[in-house]
Amino acid sequence: MADNDSETMADNDSETMADKTKVFNDPIHGNIELHPILVKIIDTPQFQRLRNIKQLGGVYYVYPGASHNRFEHSIGVAYLAGELLQTLKEKQRKLRIDERDVLCVQIAGLCHDLGHGPFSHMFDLMFIPKARPGYDWSHEKASQNMFDHLVEENGLIGVMEHHGLVPEEDRLFIKELIDPPKVEEITEWPHHGRPREKAFLYEVVSNTRNKIDVDKWEYFARDCHHLGMKNNFDCHRLIKFARVCEVDGMMQICYRDKEVFNLYNMFYTRFSLHKRAYQHKVANSVEWMIRDAFLKADKHMEIKGHDGKTFTLSTAIDDMVAYIKLTDAIFDQILNSSSKELRGAREILERIMRRELYVCLGDFSSQQPQAIIEAQWNKHLRGGNPDDYVVELVKYNYGMGAEDPIKHVRFYNKQNTDEARPINRAQVSLLLPEHFEEKKCRIYTKRTSNEDLEADRKMFNTFGPAQPHQA
Which segments cross the bilayer (predicted)? Predict the structure, then answer.
């Protein structure tokens, strides 16, 4: 992603660097011009760290084009957030969207992934839950903490004020936008950054109501591009037909009724990406191996944090000075280490380099919780070591579990643009899916010898839940 300096005013010698926009040449969105404060945030160590965190983690080991990082995705989210809000601002002046609102939402889009760890979701969904069971942590919370750290370490309070922001209000607002509460849990207005009449602003970056937000629009387009897959969803058309309407006393982002097919395309794109790439059995195998290597290395990695305090891989999340040092480079750090303590972790990563991966013995449909299937498998081993296997439950859906997310979208029509209603499935098509989620259980073996693999395959083939059920 190349960039070029571009001044906001023509040939003003007194203009400071803090007042310059920058144009980024992006393969997905073309030439993106970003506000000076966004450029200032991008040019910090905390944001530059995202250059070294793969967007799709282990998927890169299956799809060689998937080498893109959180860095360019985050810039794309900030751009799309600005496009959506500028469209709403121009079409619906009564919403009183001001430049402060637009900038804050763009900053939230830019910073929403600051808290991702090495190999993205492998770290927060696979490693941390095992290394620190029951610990209340998420990459969204880490993004909020890293944003505060970024602002303080780089002296951005003055920059925010210079560009018309009110730091004591807008810092909080930006963090609320990064991780808003689930809509169904809201009884009283929970936010302090903006009042209830601007509730729609909280749906732009992370939409808990129906999962339609610029974060998804961006990664659908970028991931499809790098995976070599077609993307049939058009977010730019959807932006043209977005409109804020009052629904049940809350201002929501709604869409023109004829765009319902475009939205179904969007949700099907999500399903397809999970099915074909995000949950690919080989990609997941690689991530389970990296997870196991990190667990073995955890207590032997010393990461310096604030005031020289030392942290491990799993405790660095509690200190932003330490956490900023955690990127995908940890893989090579372990792989190239000669430390005796890291030998076990190193051997697992060496297996990845030789493509001696955990083998998926098979998968099967299941509605049982993972813990029950795991217990059944461990019993089925009849004395075998459960640590030699991985049992995972994979879910493919439209973003809201087994539910049709379109139920949570409201649509307006050409004749009445201020009133939005649910859409009837029969009005849309008789060919819509009846089910919106499927679950597959996979079992991997860590064992490598031909004899062990043959025994494990026989074990899987006699595992009750994996047997096809007669209709």
Answer: none
